Amino acid sequence: MKFLSGFESTYIFESGRDVLELTKHTQFVKKDLRLARDTGMEQLRYSIPWHTVERNRGEYDWSWTDVAMAELRELGIMPILDPLHHTSFPRWLEDGFSNPDFVSTYLDFVTAVAERYPWVKDYTVINEPFVTTWFCGHEGKWYPYHQGADRFVPMMMNVVEAIIRVSNRLIEMVPDVRLVHVDAAEKHRALDSRSAAHAEFSNNIRFLVHDMILGGLGEDHPLYEYLLRHGADRYRLESFQKVPTRIDVLGLDYYSHCELEWCTDGRIYPNRQPEGLVQTAREYFERYRLPIMLTETNIRGYVTDRLSWLKFMVEQCEQIERDMAEAGSSFEGFCWYPFIDSTDWCSLVKEARGCVDPQGIYWLDRQTMQRNASELSEVYTALAKGQITSKDIPAYHFQPPLDELLSGLMPMMRHWGWRQPTIEHPRTSRGAGGLMPAGSMACA
């Protein structure tokens, strides 16, 4: 199994800052990439920050990305380029994905990226397009803060057109290009009859972007009338069927919250009947028959919590790898994301406060942003270098509140030999003065 990672890069819109800057990756880029190589990384998910490169429309500043890309190439690390990570579009793009010029301007930008770095073969055209558009256009969480289906559907039409046109441009320009489509691996369950319709709708809409870009959304699709009702143009939908694009690798992002359970009163959490990634991955494979990659996972907590989550996810992916081989397909890799701790997800990356999120393979000192090794980084290095498997990863009892939040998954972990974490141990904690329980943030 191939192991990879990546660097969180989301632009915190209207702040002028992004997570690359706040974690000091922009400053320590060469050091970070060498650390990634020493950890055994031969491939990384890596962002080209559109919001930074094209601060003024039509003017490209490649000064920082040239340094990063040259270092990747020198180190022999192949990037999966990610030119649009969540809301990382330029400030001048008023209304973001809803802007009528979004498709053309983004097509121009990615064309310029491919021309400048012709040696790159792997691209994620838009990271988590469904989740991002849902937050931007339906839930009002991210810029431009639109709410409701009547705003979401037209925005989604723009996003889908962009993915199709950019993907097909890359197919024309880049020999042997590999398109890695990344989105959340969701699964919805109704726990009573009154929530069944909502769960069914949610299980259909999780596939919406995949179906549309692959040309699989016709009049018989369960969401066709929903789209027309809320602002989709019939002619445009037909154009997606006539000129679709392809997906080469189906990237699944899986977190403990990706399985959602519903009852009359709304969502139930912690989950009562989670099934784990294996069953969800089977559903995606059965629908699309494509190679699969785990493109994101992590858990927020002590290093010992992250080690136990890593053990669970590697074990799940080992089963998926066997399943894929039996089906005549392939499992393309395991990505713990991010490589170093991220920042500001405590505000859903809406405030650029530099609040450290304890999620990474290497942990960040809250004051200096120094990168620190731990038992997790040692174990991930051994995994990346093919020295161990899931059986060799230690299992530490989850600390509160994760012990409760993950209780539904515990039956899948009963066969492990559990250990009690020793918080004072520097290789299993966040270090002196840096202890941070799961669910808490360095924002206080």
User: Which CATH top level class fits?
Assistant: Alpha Beta
Number of domains: 1
CATH topology assignment: TIM Barrel
Could you tell me the mean pLDDT?
94
Strand order of the largest sheet: 1-4-5-6-7-9-12-13
* Sheet with most strands: 8 strands, parallel, barrel
Characterize the structure shown.
The protein has a single domain (3-419), classed as Glycosidases (TIM Barrel, Alpha-Beta Barrel), CATH 3.20.20.80. The chain is 36% helix and 15% strand. The protein contains 15 helices and 19 strands. It has helices at residues 19-22, 29-38, 50-53, 63-75, 102-116, 129-137, 149-173, 196-205, 208-213, 224-229, 234-242, 277-288, 303-326, 375-384, 402-405; strands at residues 3-6, 11-12, 17-18, 43-47, 78-82, 122-123, 178-184, 187-190, 249-253, 259-263, 266-268, 292-296, 331-335, 342-343, 356-357, 363-364, 371-372, 395-396, 418-419. Helix 2 (29-38) runs parallel beside helix 4 (63-75) and helix 6 packs antiparallel against helix 7. The protein starts with a strand and ends in a 25-residue tail after the last strand.
Per-chain topology:
Layout: E1 3-6, E2 11-12, E3 17-18, H1 19-22, H2 29-38, E4 43-47, H3 50-53, H4 63-75, E5 78-82, H5 102-116, E6 122-123, H6 129-137, H7 149-173, E7 178-184, E8 187-190, H8 196-205, H9 208-213, H10 224-229, H11 234-242, E9 249-253, E10 259-263, E11 266-268, H12 277-288, E12 292-296, H13 303-326, E13 331-335, E14 342-343, E15 356-357, E16 363-364, E17 371-372, H14 375-384, E18 395-396, H15 402-405, E19 418-419
Parallel strand pairs: 1-4, 1-13, 4-5, 5-6, 6-7, 7-9, 8-10, 9-12, 12-13, 18-19
Antiparallel strand pairs: 2-3, 10-11, 14-15, 16-17
Helix pairs in contact: 2-4, 5-7, 6-7, 12-13
